[in-house]
Amino acid sequence: MSKLLEVKNLRVSYHTYAGEVQSVRGIDFEVNEGETLAIVGESGCGKTVTAKSLMRLIQIPPGEIKEGSEILYKGKDILKMNQEQLRHFRGAEISMIFQDPMTSLNPTMTIGKQIAESLIIHRNMKKKEAMNEAIKMLKLVNIPNAERRVKQYPHEFSGGMRQRAMIAIALACIPKILVADEPTTALDVTIQAQIMDLIKDLQDKLGTAVVLITHDLGVVADVADRIQVMYAGKIIERGNTDEMFYNPKHPYTWALLQSVPRLETGHKDSLYSIKGTPPDLVKPPIGCPFAPRCDYAMEICKQEMPEATIITESHQALCWLQHPNAPKVEVPFGIGGEN
Amino acid sequence: MSGNEDLIIVKNLKKYFQVGKNETLKAVDDVSFVIKKGETLGLVGESGCGKTTCGRTVMGLYPATDGEVLFNGVNIHGLKGKAKRDFCRNAQIIFQDPYASLNPRMTVGDIIGEGIDIHKLYSGQKKAEKIQEVLQMVGLNKEHASRFPHEFSGGQRQRIGIARALAIEPKFIVCDEPISALDVSIQAQVVNLLIKLQKELGLTYLFIAHDLSMVKHISDRVGVMYLGKLVELAPSGILYENPLHPYTKALLSSIPVADPIQSKSKNRIMLEGEVPSPINTKPGCGFVQRCKYAMDCCKGETPELKEIKPEHFVACHLLK
Fold it and tell me: Which of A339, B26, B215, B253 would disulfide-bridge B269, Cβ 3.0–4.6 Å?
């Protein structure tokens, strides 16, 4: 598989009245052709900011992408593109779907026009041709009565339908990468299953790579090829899906896995919950950001950020427990290989 | 833990909304159930199935179109004056959106104290003590009383919502999707808090949600709603192990599993399409268009909720 996108030392800050919020604090990763990469973490961990950076949608100011950050798409740095180049890039090479299908469509334009818009710009189609293509796209995302629906406005669509329409808009120009920022959080479980199946299906048909951003590990289990877990603006563990589910190394990943409610858990037993709240990123801690909430925290965790430990070629974790001198820790029951 | 006394009895409850000249939206259509003292009844279903309207009508926030809601044997619809106020003291609600349900101009102390003032329970020093007590009960500090809602995170706000409901010492709380706006890790904190409070204070809950795994965890019995009707009602263990209605089966199989091997091998029943419009519904089973077992009689005749096995009620023509 060839590398499509490479993020190097990405650092993003927001300037607020309270001070500089360091949302993303130096992350590196790559996206390969045709794969699904999941970025998982709690609210405020920087996952949406990461997604927006890939499209260069960070508003400056108050945002700031720090010196030394690089996002290379096929070797070209997105962060150095001018507005003209960006216009050709967004929608054609990378496109994005957002969390809230209710607010991210334009209420004054028909669905057809919104799909046709990018076709006219990027593929130089005539209006009529673009409209026919829009109908085809709506059929591709399984919207019934596409010929009639294409002339309707977003308010005439239900939540699930709107998310399908969003996907149709995003995929109209067959981009190489689709960034999906919590695409199913606002939807019912039944619709969530439909949308995830649709994304998987389209990926097979079109060969698009997907960057899937979510807070729910349950959603990514059967779609992701690789998973990276973010916490306080850093990627604290990454690996392929089996490694992350069956051999997780970082206590935060354990905690995330444990807090997914399972149908097998006993009735009215106390559910596992991570105590406390994520750190304030105006003053990020010097040591491991998870240390104050971690059941296994040692003295060194509070003083120094651990280096990445390479477990396998694809799997690495940032945790002092992986240090050869660290005490051996039992993985909590219910996750990992013993399940 | 649950006693045998029925706290709430809902009989043939209907709530219709007139949405156009000849258009009636049947949000809740002939629903009956009981909630025993100290138990949690879960209510699940997709958006638009009428579960929130049902919760609000049971609370008396909407007048019922038809049917009765008996609280300790008294029909709450039609209560006036002091009797109505007495009922309100015993029944409280926690809302879905922790951002929209707290007045941004009031301090947390004022929000929690409002109910105490209305029901004239405590005043002065006693009231301040009560506010501190409930704040501590939900895991917040007493210093938080002088702050405003915008200073809190989503999970903390939901705790404030719970504290507000607890301040007047109710017996019954309707939890209207209290966790669906929160992160997975915070959801567990709030659910644990609700379970703890129930054990300590002997509360009775009507727990409304679309997240089936959380509902299973907290509920003693679970009802599944579809298009304004209750299609299945059973003790939660039985419902999740042996669902009988085709809709319940589909709903359960769409829950994502946090295990790659299991979730790949899982035989998913995919539901086609979405919930049909509840406006001017035709007679017959509401699920008929999406049901793969649909027979001729499903289109004409509305199935009734019948006890198929002890304690296990299902409304489906397949089960006789």
Answer: B253
